[in-house]
Amino acid sequence: MEDGDPTLRLRIFDLNCWAIRYLSKRRQERVQLIGDMLRQDGFDLVLLQEVWSEQDYSDLKGKLRGCYPFSHYFHSGVIGSGLCIFSRFPILDTLLYQYSLNGYPYMLQHGDWFCGKSVGLIVTKISGIIFNVYVTHLHAEYCREKDVYLPHRLVQAWELAQFIRHTLTAADVVLLGGDLNMHPGDVGIRLLRGWTGLRDAFAEAARFEGCEDGCTLIPNNCFTAKTELLPFPQGVRIDYILYKAISSVTVKCEELKTTTGTAPGMDIPFSDHEAVMATLHIQRQGQAVGDNLGTAEPMLVDVVTETRTEVVVGLRAAQRQRYSTGRMAVLALLLLLLQAVAALGALAGLVAGQPFPKLSFSLLAFLAIGVLLLATGLHLFHTMEVKMLQGTEEQMRMALRALQERPSDG
Amino acid sequence: MEDGDPTLRLRIFDLNCWAIRYLSKRRQERVQLIGDMLRQDGFDLVLLQEVWSEQDYSDLKGKLRGCYPFSHYFHSGVIGSGLCIFSRFPILDTLLYQYSLNGYPYMLQHGDWFCGKSVGLIVTKISGIIFNVYVTHLHAEYCREKDVYLPHRLVQAWELAQFIRHTLTAADVVLLGGDLNMHPGDVGIRLLRGWTGLRDAFAEAARFEGCEDGCTLIPNNCFTAKTELLPFPQGVRIDYILYKAISSVTVKCEELKTTTGTAPGMDIPFSDHEAVMATLHIQRQGQAVGDNLGTAEPMLVDVVTETRTEVVVGLRAAQRQRYSTGRMAVLALLLLLLQAVAALGALAGLVAGQPFPKLSFSLLAFLAIGVLLLATGLHLFHTMEVKMLQGTEEQMRMALRALQERPSDG
């Protein structure tokens, strides 16, 4: 499309690539397949998550240089954010926002904490229209019935919505792609959509082709954990492309597609997630379109209130853990002091006779030191968690007050 | 001033309060003094840093409720961000951005790492004019000659500038107050001002009253460390109020004041820093004023290049530390393996005869485990540091390319 042409057709690709070194099955093969397909299929913007190995990113970058000359990898955390974007159009600027909460460092089996979950933003200009393109990956849901990570994921959804709201105003169009780890009706999605006014490409699409209900985690994919999907025989939809027009521009979703298990013409899928592919039709308008910031206010009040309730539940749990780890640290310290007193007593009174077996005495001391250090670390961590949950809860209270005080000032 | 009146006079107060529990001298007394003065003196916006104790914040909030009915404390890190804002006008929204680097956890004597340095943003609307008010505190400078924290502070200055640039567009006026820990000519200040277009209230002020050259850390203050100020007999200026008009508004600094050691009418200063107080004159214009994003481009290229060079120096140092901590971890692991082999050999071959003294053997093993854990932790930390420095360096390279490719598109 030429500069100045009032309509623009944009093809966007989004995929959680599941490319974790040493852990993801047939990783290198799949990354190659993804690269080949992206080169053949000519999208305009490619938003990827879980590209944890920078080598994989470099390989993709090398392979895609011809058709996607611009790209950005968002660095964060020990391993990286896993987020990257490939683009046919120049990337003018980037910004990374790290979520303040992201699970627990001691939940090693759920390595989320180490991966520095964040939201990446690139700014690009296509045919004179400025796009803010966000890519993100929220904390995974490991057990839907008893989801201990829900408060953290909701803090992330809130921070994501706030980050988008505060950074979108220079843009004409906002695009968000990523693995949000939330089902379409979940409170976090309703919050995100209500608070930002983003539209769901799946719900808005004129044409759809792919898995039933747009699911992106399906039993039909040979890499998905079948037991987790037992309650959802068709699968779940947790990967999204969302969009919003800000100024004198309209955006419509012409078509949405997902992959359906195996990659087209291959014997394996690209990932354990299905890819989401949207074709957007963007049209410049004569006059500015009203910037409708989201859902009607009474509904927005409900959804913020619901989120706040969940955050408060998380806050109570974090306060309990802060208390119990603090108590553990104090007990370990007391044990150490007791041992020190006993040792001093032994040294002063009966240097010859040894009342304690040296080895078990020193082992006990080391154990106490270990528990003390661990419990102190955990106590500090949960203190931080409490502060962040409190801070978010306060922000939501402020938002609710603002919503309720000015019901007509949408 | 009435809504609709085209001019507005705004009084802003900024102070690093040095209110660290147990560590800061005469803390409670000084916090009380600060509260009394703020209540008497009737500013419009009060930006405070280093209010580390939430109790102090609550006390101030209680005392200032009458004249500053709106306030916000920015939670972050274990202790909090220390940042808070009091306002005569409703706070409509808030956002906190945490810097990705902030010193080293093992530099306990320079506790910066634990304090979660960040930038807080509040949005407020005064007489129909939207203000984005930022408050921040960058990493301290402990030794100007050999400033190992310079790369971290420059990453923070860059992230601060990027955060402001991406969030300012909905505002009519941008205000930034805080302890930037940089002298006026330092590369980080030049970067921040050049990249955002913020103006220095001290340099622009029509009238000035206070310490010579606007210094905010002066030998005349009984709480400052005199040895650190030896090279600067007049003191240094590291606390700033910066501002910028975005849309159809002009901002002028009518007056800038600083405190001068002791608080007016008292025998002690408010803090070890001097307070900065600006009176701004804000006028609505008929038509939009060109949004000049900062310094002329050739100068901007120079300052970004200079910053990038310093970031690369930091990157090299971080890479060296990542390597040496990794080597240390491997050595500790080898020692442990060696011990395990020896112990197994002893168990298998000569169960009766004990070739090693048990106590020193187990102490050595515990030592090796300790070193292994510590070195691994540090290795992970420096890996993260390397990633963040690399990421910033890449962003700066992208910015330079954009600046150089479009020299006329300021």
Automatic annotation (TrEMBL), chains A, B:
It comes from the Eukaryota. It is an enzyme of class 3 (hydrolase). GO terms for cellular component: membrane. Pathway: Sphingolipid metabolism; Lipid metabolism; sphingolipid metabolism. Residues 16-273 form the Endonuclease/exonuclease/phosphatase domain. It is found in: Membrane. Keywords: Hydrolase, Lipid metabolism, Magnesium, Membrane, Metal-binding, Sphingolipid metabolism, Transmembrane, Transmembrane helix. It is a multi-pass membrane protein. It catalyses: 1-O-hexadecyl-sn-glycero-3-phosphocholine + H2O = 1-O-hexadecyl-sn-glycerol + phosphocholine + H(+); an N-(acyl)-sphingosylphosphocholine + H2O = an N-acyl-sphingoid base + phosphocholine + H(+); 1-O-octadecyl-sn-glycero-3-phosphocholine + H2O = 1-O-octadecyl-sn-glycerol + phosphocholine + H(+); 1-hexadecanoyl-sn-glycero-3-phosphocholine + H2O = 1-hexadecanoyl-sn-glycerol + phosphocholine + H(+). Its cofactor is Mg(2+). GO terms for biological process: sphingolipid metabolic process. Its EC number is 3.1.4.12. One of its GO terms (molecular function) is sphingomyelin phosphodiesterase activity. Belongs to the neutral sphingomyelinase family. This is Sphingomyelin phosphodiesterase 2. It comes from Columba livia. The gene is SMPD2.
